[in-house]
Amino acid sequence: GNIRDFLKIVFVGHVDHGKSTLVGRIFHDTDSLPEGKVESIRRMCERRGMPMEYAFLLDALQAERDQGITIDTTQIWFKSARRDYVIIDAPGHKEFLKNMITGAASADAAILVIDAKEGVQEQSRRHGYLLHLMGVPQVTVCVNKMDLVGYSQDRFDAIEREIRGYLQSIGVSPDHVIPVSGREGDLIVGPSASMPWYPGPSVVDALDGFRVPAPATDQPLRFPVQDVYKFDDRRIIAGRIESGTLRVGDTLLFSPTNKTVRVKSIEAWNAPAPPMKASAGQSVGITLDEQIFVERGHVASHESHPPIETDVFRAHVFWLGREPLKTGKTYRMKLANTEAPVTVQSIDNVIDTGDLSQRAGATVERNAVAEITVRSRKMLALDEFRDNQKTGRFVLIDGYDISGGGIVSMEGYADQRQM
Ligand code: GDP
């Protein structure tokens, strides 16, 4: 099949807890670095009279990336014996949170890094919550800098209990919690002589144990329209199939216009012959056997499993705006290929990601999570995030800035929807 053979991972955690160091170490210990890179960093550290700093490896790779030397300008790759990995967002990257909430950095798996000496911090919890909110399906925790706590099993056990307790309370169960030292290289690829008490996998073993998610071909069809092209008398509806499969002859339902029409042909950009079907992950154009009104932002599905059509919905948002989120204020919303002005009708709950306490509020401050009710000026086609990650995720734009990211979660609205 067309299952990817690489995994997209993201490193999260409190600043300075050792994400870059860990990544540098992984690159080093998996021999994923360009020839001479480690030596040049080692010499530079020696000249400065400091110990080898693995985090500089990442800085060096990123610098090259920023200068466009490496081919892909947003991603850095490494490989284990098992497969390839791409780090979809670099630790410390200032756009990190934005990328997470916009789905630009949609990860298959995450490593949450916690400093063994400092323990679980507010930012560790917030990032854990974000992973939950954004539906990152697989998480492993690394308790880093074990060298600073004398490789103490007691210290590790205490942190493991605390972070497992927190993650469990938000519905995340980590595959592993691993004691490591990025600086000393403990438990990056093999076992560690310093921690004979730890029976579990190393970081790279844990990575290799993550699953590569199968494409969403068996889910209900969602084909958000990106563009409508006219060639002579032909009209091609173009977009990316986000989930499901469509076939020539299928009857499609277009939302939110609620029109049904049959697929006359599928045009794939680089197929030798016109295909009879196309599936999740493919960008295609289709022609229809009737001229109905279709524009960018409309979503095609099958009648048996339509998206939700509504102008009001419930959501969880993560707010990043400099200005707090306010009820009554109008924002621009982008969801799949739709853009619409929306107002926040109510802020139903503000959730403290630290202790998970909830309160009602009139505003949501930067870095907070809230449950809100959103009203749109026009009808929308959307899904709950748990049903479809592509049509259940949106961003709110205030002026020119992406100020918040959210997921549609209609809990409590089910009854109204059926009416
Ligand atoms: P980031 O902000 O999470 O990417 O953290 P860095 O990787 O930049 O590390 C922050 C500091 O912690 C740097 O001075 C590292 O040298 C240090 N550090 C990282 N990992 C370890 C470790 O395993 N042991 C010790 N002793 N120091 C570490």
UniProtKB/TrEMBL annotation:
Keywords (A to Z) from UniProt: ATP-binding, GTP-binding, Kinase, Multifunctional enzyme, Nucleotide-binding, Nucleotidyltransferase, Phosphoprotein, Transferase
EC code: 2.7.1.25
Pathways involved: Sulfur metabolism; hydrogen sulfide biosynthesis; sulfite from sulfate: step 2/3
Keyword Transcription regulation carried by entry: no
Broad class of enzyme this protein falls into: transferase
Domain (Tr-type G): residue spans on this chain: 4-216
Family note: Belongs to the APS kinase family. In the N-terminal section; belongs to the TRAFAC class translation factor GTPase superfamily. Classic translation factor GTPase family. CysN/NodQ subfamily.
Subunit details: Sulfate-activating enzymes, NodP and NodQ, may be physically associated.
Protein's name according to its UniProt entry: Adenylyl-sulfate kinase
Species this protein is from: Minwuia thermotolerans
The gene coding this protein: cysC
Portion held of the full protein: 4 to 422 of 623
